[in-house]
Amino acid sequence: MCADANETTLDQLRESVGDLPTIPETLTRILKLLEDPNSGARDLAEVIRGDAPLASKILRLANSPLYQKNRTINTVQECVAVLGYRTVRQVALCVAVVSSLGNECEKRGATVNYKDLWRHCVAAGAVAQVLARQIDHDEPEAVFTCGLLHDLGKFVLTLRFPREYSDLVAERCRCGRPLVDLEREHLGYDHAQAGAALADAWNFPPPLVAAIGGHHDDEPSERDVALVTLADYLANLLDPSASDLGFDAMVLDAERLYAAAGLEREEVEGRLDDLRDAISAASPLRNLE
Prior knowledge:
Order of helices and strands: HHHHHHHHHHHHHHHHHH
Distance between the termini: 32 Å
CATH class: Mainly Alpha
Radius of gyration: 18 Å
CATH topology: Hypothetical protein af1432
Number of domains: 1
Structural class: mainly alpha
Helix content: 55-70%
Largest sheet: none
Mean pLDDT: 85
Strand content: under 5%
CATH superfamily: Hypothetical protein af1432
Number of strands: 0
Number of helices: 18
Shape: globular
């Protein structure tokens, strides 16, 4: 790793957010809707319609097997009405974030396989949503979003230290040690902390910042963080990353993690086919181009 990466503390990374993509205007408007209890379907449809590329992606997803409906959805307003305000809002948030970061990776010639990274994130999001529904979570869509964006920090480090982070991932592949351990050794912080720093700078909702920042904690203190950590673990087992970027061979106390998430291990692992089906159904999300 070069001196630039070694000498950049987490505080300095927060201060250098200006070196990273600025928050997309559409995302700013979506986040404002999240904070406004009086916002509704019409407001969301108006925001999405104002961003033609986003609207096109949302409609493509709405008509994919991810949302099995017995009708074709032709307009954004219809999409919100059929799929629901919460679902479309969360998906729009994720699409706006990843499209922005993915485009920036393309422009900067990122050497890390960010497309494969997003593939892992989609798998984790799909599993997180299933787990949330199993415990009758009030907002499984929000947990889905947390799962989709849990590895936001890997995008941050790819953009901030493109060559150095690629070398770090290669070292992880050679030695088999957890990527978070190598990140902490070389940087003084890990991708979870880096992701939380960007999420906080972009004014993401606190529960989302917590899930991004805490998904590698040894003992998650919040249920949603535990759900995302467990989803990350299960997604790695069921749908391993082809480039090895999404897999952390971390040692965790699975029993404690299941307990923190409010789930029975035997019940979840006895229905792994349900999780595989969810990952397969979410595959349209993997291509956001």
